[in-house]
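User: Quick sanity check before I run a bigger batch. Here is a single chain. Can you write out its predicted 3D structure?
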Amino acid sequence: MAKGGFRGGFPGGGNQMQMMKQAQKMQQEFLKMQQELESSKFEGTAGGGAVKAVVSGTHQFESVTIDPEVVDPEDVEMLQDLVLAAVNSALKAADDQTNASMSKLQGGMGGLGGLGGLF
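Assistant: Done. Predicted structure follows.
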């Protein structure tokens, strides 16, 4: 082998081992965060709280609560719109929390030399 060649491994092997350890730690943190998000519940409201919707972190619609005062048989469309708005608000809350958690996780990946872009 030519002078200055590899010595029993990769150049900068210590750095690669450290990067692998950091990557494994980040993977564990990601899995923990994912489990926490999946078990979370997110609420959205519409009509000043007259309609409330709850979704899970996996975007499963869990429940809807409707104040009887907003139920008008003459205006079913308004109630439909309120339910839709509440569900969308809850889904947005779930997405916002997921994005915030991912950003926080990505912030800890700065030392991984570009792996942060994978998440």
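Confidence is low (pLDDT under 50) at residues 111-119.

User: Great, the batch can go ahead then.
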